[in-house]
Specification:
single chain, mainly alpha, 64% helix, 97 residues
């Protein structure tokens, strides 16, 4: 590999690291989406971890990881949590039905 290609590759790797950390890159707009506070949502709905996990269709362990901020919900789970956030009691009642 010639020196210029190697230099370009190394710059790409550094840029990827900056992007993953949410840092600004020239010509790239980084959107940081905050993860929902799953524990606060569950508590506002007044349900246990086991019950909430069952209602939204995830394992209790997954819910624990979200609450401990070890992982973040994505895709359909994030959308469902947004619905729960809008009206926790009503959403839980609808999920029970």
């Amino acid at each position: 590999m010639n020196e210029q290609l190697f230099s370009d590759l190394m710059q790409s790797i550094r840029d990827a690291g900056r992007y993953m950390r949410g840092e600004e890159l020239p010509g790239v707009k980084v959107h940081v989406i905050e993860a929902p506070d799953v524990k606060a949502l569950r508590e506002s709905a007044s349900v246990s971890q086991a019950e909430f996990a069952h209602l939204i269709g995830v394992s209790r362990r997954t819910l624990e990881n979200w609450e401990q901020k070890r992982t973040v919900p994505s895709g359909p789970a994030r959308a469902l949590l947004k619905i729960v956030a809008a009206n926790p009691k009503a959403a839980v009642a609808a999920l029970h039905a």
